[in-house]
Design brief:
It is a single chain. By secondary structure, this protein is of the alpha+beta class. It folds into 2 domains: 110 residues, D-3-phosphoglycerate dehydrogenase, domain 3 (60s Ribosomal Protein L30, Chain: A), CATH 3.30.1330.90; 265 residues, 2-methylcitrate dehydratase PrpD, CATH 1.10.4100. Helix content is 53%, strand content 10%. It has 16 helices and 7 strands. The strands form 2 sheets. It has a 5-stranded mixed sheet with strand order 3-2-4-5-6. Helix 6 packs across helix 8, helix 12 packs parallel to helix 14 and helix 13 runs antiparallel to helix 14. The chain is globular, with a radius of gyration of 21 Å. 53% of the residues are buried. The protein binds iron/sulfur cluster (SF4). The site of iron/sulfur cluster (SF4) has 12 residues, from loops. Iron/sulfur cluster binds next to loops.
Length: 403
């Protein structure tokens, strides 16, 4: 597996696969053809189906238009065989002759992949020799160490500086989200709710307040993401509210030090990395179980570690976080990362705290392993019809259009 730095990407939302990845691809193509007279970019499959709501065109045009006029072609009915999020970039000279073309795929979490020829990113080294939870759990039990120590052994020394930056960005997104009011961009005219949840939660007694605050923090980050604010993919933009809300809530309520939060982030990153490697974190490939489901697994593991869980209990918490999101579809209304995405982050954050608690009551023994759930998630995702995989053609997205 690659560095968890490639899982936690700091950037601008609202979508890692539909905004961050295409922006990065456009910047890279623009650098290759700085003297082009014009560009044409064809978006295929899911990228075309929900690209307008996800601001894919804005990300690409922002990157290429300063070099040369850029046109976007939308092909929502054409799915390239390699991955549902395909893009074809073409550069033209002044005589309108093609001087370069590039087919590239935005495969989730802001990552890019080329079919056949590995992209530079694909060439980045695999620094983790173990890539299943079962192997890593065994290593923990044999060495007496924890998951974050495995991360420490595999990553460069600067990983803690990087995670510190990740944590700082997450906290800033929460603060901005709590301070912001008004309506989110797009045709839904959806009002921001985080600030209201926060103030109402403060009026309740402790256990209700606790739940209300974790909702407020998750809403804050997800609303920031939906409005194109700076967030961290954890593992994606659409699911970026879950991990920060759980960690921030625990830090505020239990006084966990930043150092312990960074270690929890390391473990959460390892959990997300295992899924990214063995299945997918792309809503267009496996539905929302791969985004919010994985975020919940990451946050569950992180919370359990903070409360002193054993490696087996941490694995169990992660397993429940994902298992109980199996089959969850991706059906963003109007192609925006707003309904159901924002609320879904708040629910998943609460579920992560429940998974932590549930696991804490056990000795960590259970029947279905995390690795098994990852395999099932992958298969379930492949069995889902494409209308439930970020095309905005089914589920809630369809109902909304009929209203
Ligand atoms: S429904 Fe889930 S997977 Fe789909 S865009 Fe929203 S957060 Fe991402």
């Amino acid at each position: 597996m690659k560095s968890i730095k490639e899982l936690y990407r700091i950037g601008i939302g609202p979508s890692s696969s539909h905004t961050m990845g295409p922006r990065k691809a456009a910047e890279s193509f623009g650098q290759q053809y700085p003297h082009a007279a014009s560009f044409r970019v064809t978006l295929y499959g899911s990228l075309a189906a929900t690209g307008k709501g996800h601001m894919t065109d804005v990300a690409i045009i922002d990157s290429l238009q300063p070099i040369a006029p850029t046109e976007i072609d939308w092909e929502p009915k054409i799915f390239l065989p390699f991955h549902p999020n395909g893009m074809l970039f073409k550069a033209f000279d002044a005589a309108n002759q093609v001087i370069g073309s590039w087919t590239v795929y935005s495969v989730g979490g802001g990552a890019l992949t080329e079919e056949g020829t590995p992209s530079p990113e694909m060439n980045s080294p695999n620094i983790y020799t173990m890539s299943s939870m079962t192997e890593i759990l065994l290593w923990c039990e044999q060495t007496g160490k924890s998951y974050w120590e495995y991360v420490k052994e595999c990553e460069d020394e600067d990983i803690w500086d990087y995670l510190n930056e990740v944590w700082k960005t997450m906290k800033e997104a929460i603060q901005r989200g709590l301070d912001s009011e008004g309506v989110l961009p797009g045709p839904l005219n959806l009002r921001r709710k985080a600030s209201t949840y926060y103030i109402r939660a403060k009026g309740f007694k402790q256990s209700l307040q606790s739940r209300g605050l974790v909702f407020a923090y998750a809403l804050a980050v997800s609303e920031e993401n939906a409005s194109g604010g700076k967030i961290v993919t954890a593992p994606t933009c659409g699911s970026s509210g879950v991990v920060p809300s759980v960690l921030y809530h625990l830090q505020q309520s239990r006084d966990f030090s930043d150092l312990r939060i960074l270690r929890a982030l390391a473990t959460a990153g390892l959990v997300g990395n295992i899924v990214k490697r063995n299945a997918s974190i792309s809503g267009a490939e496996v539905g929302c179980q791969g985004e919010v489901g994985v975020a919940c697994a990451m946050a569950s593991a992180a919370a359990n570690q903070l409360f002193g869980g054993s490696p087996a209990q941490i694995e169990y918490a992660a397993e429940m976080g994902l298992e109980h999101h199996l089959g969850m579809t991706c059906d963003p209304v109007c192609g925006l990362v707003q309904i159901p995405c924002i609320e879904r982050n708040a629910y998943a954050a609460a579920r992560a705290l429940d998974a932590n608690l549930y696991s804490t009551f056990t000795d960590g023994m259970h029947r279905v392993s995390f690795d098994k759930v990852v395999q099932v998630m992958k298969q379930t995702g492949h069995d889902l019809p494409s209308l439930y995989k970020e095309t905005s053609e089914g589920g809630l997205a369809k109902d909304y259009e009929q209203m």
